[in-house]
Amino acid sequence: MIYVQGGTKQQRKYAYSMADYVCNKFNVSPSVEISFRRLTNEACLGACVQLDQNEYEIDIKRSLRLRDMLTTLAHELVHVKQYELGQLTQNNESDYNYWDKPSEIEAHGREIGLFITWAENHKLANKKWTQR
Description:
By secondary structure, the protein is of the alpha/beta class. The chain has 3 helices and 4 strands; from the N terminus they run E-H-E-E-E-H-H. The protein has helices at 9-26, 66-84, 102-121, and strands spanning 2-5, 31-37, 46-52, 55-61. The protein has a 4-stranded mixed β-sheet with strand order 1-2-4-3, covered by helices on one side. Helix 1 (9-26) links the parallel strand 1 and strand 2 (31-37). The N and C termini lie far apart (31 Å).
């Protein structure tokens, strides 16, 4: 199940759509709660926490523009996939600096591609807000 709370109606609609798309693409079916929050750390755009087996919480900075919000969500959903497939645990990357963590390399590497394929599949790729 995917739950989305906070944010605008448009943010909730697209967040649900993105989460559904990415989970189907990775063939995982976790329970994910996505919350739009006022994150005060400038560098932090989002976060993913495994609450229990097959259960996750994703926080997204609510002030992000729509495209940035969706790429951040795609990034955090890669972490959900990593947890689900046993590629990531809460402690297995503690010896790495953030940018050298294998989980972050994959998540940063896939976030834009996931956004672009989602936008193409939902006939949104020609919209101005999806462009860079």
